[in-house]
Amino acid sequence: MKRVAATVREERGGILSWLSRRSTNGVVEGMNPAIQPMKRAACGFRGLADFTAPIFLGLGRLEFAATSATGCATH
Asked: The pTM is what?
C-alpha cells in the first residue's frame, strides 16, 4: 500500500491533468515509431534543428507534387 501511495504521489500532476482534460500522451507516443527510422537516418546531424526538419517533413504528410500549369503563374 505504501508503494501505491508513493506512485500516486509521484504521478499526482499527470493524474490531475487527466481528470481535468481527459487527455493522454498517446498521440505523441504513436508518433514515436515513425520518428525512430528518421532518427537512425539522422546519425551525423550536428544539432537539434538539423534533426527536427526531417521529422516535420516526414510527419507533416506534405505533398510535393508539381502544381498544374493552369494555376496562377508568377513568372
From this structure: 0.48
- Taking the chain, what is the end-to-end CA distance rounded to the nearest angstrom? 73
Nearest alpha carbon to residue 27 among 35, 39, 16, 19: 35
The per-residue pLDDT for range 29-52, each reduced to its tens digit, is 888 898 888 888 877 778 888 888
Asked if residues 59 and 34 have their Cβ atoms less than 8 Å apart, the reply is yes
Place of cell 500500500: 1
Tens digit of each residue's pLDDT (9 = 90 or more) over 11-26: 999 888 888 888 788 8
Give how far the C-alpha of residue 32 lies from the chain's centroid of Cα atoms, to the nearest Å. Answer: 7
31 and 59 in contact (C-beta within 8 Å)? yes
